Structure formats: C-alpha cells, structure tokens
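Appendix C: a fully annotated inverse folding record. The material below is reproduced so that readers can follow the format used throughout the book. The structure is listed first as tokens, followed by the designed sequence.
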C-alpha cells in the first residue's frame, strides 16, 4: 500500500493518524512513517485497512476533541491537579482562608440541601 493510499483512506474514514493507529493497534508513529514512505505496512495491516475501508467511518473510534468535560465527584479524586491544590491548601493558611471565602456560595455535597423558606401568605 502506497503512502498516498493511506492518506486517501484516512480522508475516506475522516480520521487522524492516531485514530487509524488505534484502530490497527499500532503506534501512531508507524502510521506517520507509512504516510511518509519511510516504512510500508505488512500484509496484515493492509488487510486490516481494507476491512476498515469496507466498514466506513463508523469503524473508527473517535478521540474526544475540544475541551474535555470537567471532572466531578469521584472522578475528580483521580485528578493530580486536585492533590496539588490540596497540598497547597494544607501548607499555606492564607490560601486556605481565601479558598474558604470563595467556596461559601457553593453547596456542600456532604450536607443535605437546605429546605426552602416558607412562602409568606398575604
């Protein structure tokens, strides 16, 4: 398979080199090398690319594009940025005070929601 054919396939599948590499279970650098003519895919990968072409664009698992959704809840616990902030909060009392003030308008998920005040009758 020639480099131009691989580029044409990616265009047909509307995918990036990384997405094609993922679909073929190869390193993205390998797909880039194929497209540059530095390396050539083996028969196994030529056959796999033909199968992808037959299936069409839906055969490609799309990488998320744009800004990632903000992590919340338990997912946030795995975020290293949270723990960096936590270490700073523990170490710097002035920062802790500033963050405490900033957090006042936000609800605490550990506390039950406040009951709505009764409506005045009149």
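Designed amino acids, in order:
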């Amino acid at each position: 398979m020639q480099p131009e054919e691989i580029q044409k396939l990616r265009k047909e599948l509307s995918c990036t080199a990384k997405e094609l590499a993922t679909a073929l279970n190869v390193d993205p650098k390998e797909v880039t090398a194929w497209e540059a003519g530095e390396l050539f895919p083996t028969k196994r990968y030529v056959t796999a690319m033909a199968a992808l072409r037959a299936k069409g664009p839906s055969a490609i698992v799309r990488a998320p594009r744009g800004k990632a959704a903000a992590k919340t809840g338990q997912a946030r616990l795995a975020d290293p940025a949270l723990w960096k902030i936590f270490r700073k909060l523990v170490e710097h009392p002035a920062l802790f005070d500033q963050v405490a003030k900033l957090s006042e308008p936000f609800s605490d998920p550990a506390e039950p929601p406040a009951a709505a005040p009764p409506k005045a009758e009149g």
